Amino acid sequence: MKKQRQWQVSATCLAVMLAGIAQIPSALEASTPEAAPAAPAYRVVAPARAPNVVIVLLDDVGFGATSTFGGPVETPALDALAKQGVRYNRFHTTAICSPTRASLLTGRNPHATGIGAVMNSSDARPGYSGFHPKDTASIAQILRQNGYNTAAFGKWHQTPDWEVSPNGPMDRWPTGEGFERFYGFQGGETDQFDPTLFEGTTPVMRPAAKGYHLTEDLADQAIVWLNQQHALMPDKPAFLYFAPGATHAPLQAPREWIEKFHGRFDQGWDRMRTESFARQKKLGIIPADARLTPRDPRMPAWDALTPDERKVAAHQMEVYAGFLAHTDAQIAKLIDALKANGEFENTLFFYIVGDNGASGEGGLLGSSNYMGALQGLPENDAMRLAVNDQLGSAGTYPHYAAGWAWAMNTPFQWMKTVASHLGGTRNGMVVSWPREITQTGGVRAQFGHVNDIAPTILEAAGIPMPQSVDGVAQKPMDGTSLLYSFNTASAPERHRTQYFEVFGHRAIYHDGWMASAFHARLPWMGITPGDKSFDDDRWELYDLTRDFSQSRDLAAKEPKRLAELKQLFLSEASRNQLLPLRNVTLPDRRGMPSIANGRTRMAFSTGAHGIPETALPPMVNRSFTVDATVDAGAHPQGVIAALGGTSAGWSLWIDAQGHLMLSYQLFQLGRTTLRAANALAPGRHTLRFDFVYDGGGYARGAELRILVDGAVAGSARIAASPPAFFTIDETFDVGLDRGSPVGAYPDAAPGYALTDGVVREVVIESK
């Protein structure tokens, strides 16, 4: 009876349900279209035939470095892309990294985005703050909101110092700027063998693979993303921003790639430059009537170097060439992945060969550990020779001589940071889009700028420039789409006016003419004081329609034209937040936010990772202490706390025998190591690192001391210390050493994380 009753109830319910369903059509018929609720837009669909977009942006590669643009380094991936696309020989960057990236990603002039200076030298002027306001949204944000998947791999260098910590805010991290995936590094550079990595906004250790190299890792990660995106959403276009650290210092590459170039640069930079110049004319990269600009007399001739100086310098260039060639091979893997997926034909691929000209920041003779030399710490021939055979390997932090930068910028004068001249701002670019570019293999000579890339993408995708993004009214883009030039080499150029400014070096381009004013800072001088009046700068004038290499100054012959261009520069400077101009050496942080905010004491515990040096109490040109409370087990070993890495920094750690250790790395001046005589017994300990500064000025010496439970366990003298900072990319971490190692740790695993012990607290206090 129970089962029969249940069936009766169920049958009754079923009948009611069927009756209700039968009424639905009539109910729908009775409703009117006006009464029907609008269907929500669950998914935004990109315009029909919108292409995939890939931007590859290399770092510190000069116009004349790659074989594609007549240089000495074979770049077969770039060569192949040029044959099926087009080369641009009048494409421009801003002369330095952060502003170039800001301009590239937003389509605006860099100062208009707030990033008119490299992030490490930002100040309170609105155009130089390093703070990217929301009225210049990135191309990634626009594409994502119009049906694209977006990802960024590699260097970012767009987040202000006070927002780089794990506590953010994250608005100006890549994932806050429109990228759904980010894997890379935040600073201007990183160690290629032990990088300081982030996955999204989370600090992570690099994979513990033997023979690891960052550029390979970035390419592999990007390919995984491309393949997964194609598998899951083949009807949705992808936007990939691939910005490796190559070839920014430290120059580091797998040994086999460096050895490929053994002996190739023994002739030196003067001859290399003439060889590249001849190849550029033969390839049609530069006009037949172009002239080779001379070497600045303040830069040494190759023949003026000693035999030891030539030996070291030649090997520096071998390392650089290996780094560049190895990078091009990783980009070939990206192209192959797109072809394997059948996506390459409809991929708009920009291969931008440098975010500025080649860099002279290694100094006139190069450096085995350039970050110290950049701050003014001395490096002699003996130091360079001592590590020459290992140059480019893990544990070295080298940069090449400025003469090589000059040669890599053939045929132009000057180099990175000199925004007044083409050696700083002229970079090669190759564009490929097999579905649309039919006139392939040629050279495009229309004026172009990195702010043209975003407008080009929007036109190619059929997406109008939005008037507002996320409710914020947008500034118009300053760039001009280059789409008009893809299949018409003779098309009149549309980007008619463009200003340039970095460190007071400035220029204005208008309708084929360029006015240029070199200010004060020599590109190989590093951090130097400057107080030169801008009124004392001498302006030069060039007719670039007849003078490709900027070799004939016409200022004396055309004073009226020069005056007009100078006035145009002032107009553009006012419109784009350049003014007031200021001599910049060390960053002026007055009026800027700060995580440390003047604090001289901060306490951390286990799990504190990825904290930038700028967030800590100051530790240069003064005394400071590091106090750690640690619970030790029977066999503790690993890092207690560390700041910095291979280039410079300090690490308080426990070795495999349980002894407290201190490693203090001072750039090219070497590492000082202290070791306590007795192993730590199980239980709680107070461990201390004292840095007792000599005083009396910048970069003075100090006494290093380590203490165990209040008793001095070791001490040493050092002759100097960092004048400005330990690092611009490595971080402070508790319980491990992220990025490159400060100490010679016994464990090969990245980070040398603390085991059989717990860090209860680490207190940093500056005096």
Please mark out the parts with pLDDT under 50 across 5 or more consecutive residues, or reply none: 1-33
Which structural category fits the helices and strands? Answer: alpha+beta
Outline, from the CA principal axes? globular
Helix content: 10-25%
Distance between the termini: 90 Å
Number of strands: 28
Proportion of beta-strand residues? 15-25%
Rg over CA atoms, rounded to whole Å, is: 29 Å
Sheet of most strands: 11 strands, mixed
Number of helices: 14
3D structure, described in words:
- There is one protein chain.
- 23% of the residues lie in helices and 23% in strands.
- By secondary structure, it is α+β, with helices and mostly antiparallel strands.
- Strands 1, 2, 3, 4, 5, 6, 7, 8, 9, 10 and 11 form an eleven-stranded mixed sheet that branches. Strands 18, 19, 20, 21, 22, 23, 24, 25, 26, 27 and 28 form an eleven-stranded antiparallel sheet that branches.
- α5 (214-232) runs parallel beside α8 (307-340).
